[in-house]
Amino acid sequence: MTNKIQEAKRILVAFGMDSERSNERSALILLALLHLRRDDAWRDASNPMLRTRAIMDWIRDQYEREYRPNTRETIRRFTLHQFAEALLIQQNPDQPDRPINSPYWNYQITPRALTVIQQYGTPGFESALSEYLAEVPGLREQYAAARKMNRIPVNLPGGKPFTLSPGGQNLLLKQMVEEFCSRFTPGAEVLYVGDADSKWALFEAERLAELGVTVDQHGKMPDLVVYMADKDWLVLLEAANSHGPVDAKRHGELAKLFESASPGLVYVSCFSDRKEMRKYLHQIAWATEVWCAGDPTHLIHFNGERFLGPYD
Predict the structure, then answer these.
(1) What's the total number of domains in the chain?
(2) Which of 86, 164, 262, 279 lies in disulfide reach of 170, CB 3.0 to 4.6 Å?
(3) Are the beta carbons of 82 and 21 closer than 8 angstroms?
(4) How far apart are CA 3 and CA 290, in angstroms?
(5) Domain containing 157 — which CATH number?
(6) What are the Cα distances from residue 301, in Å, to 43, 109, 289?
(7) Largest Cα–Cα separation, the chain
(8) What is the pTM of this model?
């Protein structure tokens, strides 16, 4: 093991990382994020923005450690996530509202942490580190406030405050809650909203249980579930731009997931516009509904015995 890796491990321990976040993998990830080669001095550390694949490539090219493509999630979940929580790195400094599923998601050592790391091996490192660690709680509040500013506010029926993470399907999901529900399910209760980065962002488990629904948390929930008490309907809505529409397969999955429900089930595929919908026309299941945010006052019915209603 090279001296640089050993030193990187010691730095991570000094920053308060546990054994998993100060092992060889995490040390190599730190060196990649700093673009430090074996013979570089710590004062030469930099902080480029790197995607996960670029981090893995750097480690392979500079330290001859080959990480297979299927370890990418391990790197994200067991090192980069904790580095971000500890404010050692920031995510997407170039575009903080980048969608969580974007292939351009990137990481960068924070400028404040970089100034400390660049002093490693000098008499000033310990004092710089102590000062930095004392600042971390305040820095954490600043970063949390910045993340909150980038979230998407959603006006739920009843006025309950709620936000979604930026990007992904969540802009469409906001329109589904605010535009579709106000027009086609007025007065309905929102019982479930699945955020792009938090599957159970809003989950009224007790209310669903009252309606006979016991949700298997391993099951794939629809993106939005609302209950119309006046008609005794559960309306299951999918943000089809990201996951596809309610096709025959998905219809069967949802019917199984909600088979214990006492209300009738209504299935709706939601698209941003009709151009997007046309890509999936051949897939949409019969006896379901389609709504396009670009034409919010209209609903398209895929022929069945009734319009906008459940089936036995």
Answers:
(1) 2
(2) 164
(3) yes
(4) 61
(5) 3.40.1350.80
(6) 65, 51, 5
(7) 80
(8) 0.56
